[in-house]
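[scheduler] slot 2 assigned
[scheduler] job type: sequence-to-structure, two independent chains
[scheduler] chain ordering preserved from manifest
[runner] begin chain α
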Amino acid sequence: MSRSSSHFWRNFVKLLLPLEVTGRLVDALTKASPREIGGILMAEHIANNDFRVRDVTIQRRGGSFATFIRAVQSVLGPLREFFRVTNYNYTRFNYIGEWHSHPSFAPVPSSTDHNTMHSIIENPEVGAFFVVLVIVKLNAARELEGSVTVYQPGGRRFRGELVMEEEKI
């Protein structure tokens, strides 16, 4: 999301997770347990501060019991393909942030997660007004639960809302 999107906000973002994306994440988390996994989020801006995740990458390597390190080279191809498929309409479809799992801990960002996301938003090459971090895990019923944290330049961050859609779109 470009820095020119400053018409935005009252410290609220709703991130919708479609059923098919939830299913992919549940499958990946089941296979990876107890290791952390993650990737990037590509979303559609659907209204004011509402975004629907349209695609995710799933990086199964680079994680351990308590850490996940995203490999930059693993996301370039999927990002290019997402932009091509969405006709390079960057104001409507774009990279929105990162996701990873905390299978053995609460699905909230650690201090390391906060530092990583602040370094992404402060990077002038990213050129974003905000990025989100979604932390997920499977609960005891093997259902996905998670949190959304939104990061803005200048060290600002706030909680968003993660909504898991129940119907195919």
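[runner] end chain α
[runner] begin chain β
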Amino acid sequence: MAETLRVLIADDETLHNLALTSQLETLGHEVVATASNGKEAVDLARQTQPDVVFLDIRMPQMSGPEAAHLIAQDRPVPIIILSAYSDARTVDEAVKAPVFHYLVKPVDPNDLGPAIGVARARFEEWLDARRQRDMLELKLEERKIVERAKGLLMESRGLSERDAYRFLQKTSQDKNTHMVDLAKKILLAAPLLQRES
């Protein structure tokens, strides 16, 4: 049996909300909340923490793409845009938002399952890419710290770049600590090292 997902639906047309709720429940999912405007969708997403969010592209108070930005900012989740429009301008508006699928209304029940699957898969890829980016940024930041500590050792102890790096490497191994942690300690001790030189 397929996984039961907790779903939030936001559409200013009550009939669309009811029809989509029925279709999702038929697929075995639980509709945890329905909203009639974008602002309400953002508030309900915060309260209910759904697994998937459906947002109508044009709603009162706040559009679907605007709500998508706020929901993703608070807690990223697979978001599917619903629209009665498929013109280039409307699609472009959706593309610029953190959404992972686009369905044209009225939604065909046969399209719903695959749309959720695609949205969740794209969301996982996006999360993975974001994690990798964060890891690369962290590694770059750590590399800068090691480089600064190496420069300090070169300056205060008259070491070559190679010898300063070897010192960091050997000391981190001897003390069983990460090189970046050792580098941070060296940078904290910079005033003492500079006084010694």
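[runner] end chain β
[qc] chain β: The helical segments are 14-26, 38-48, 64-74, 88-95, 109-157, 161-174, 179-188, 190-196.
[scheduler] slot 2 released
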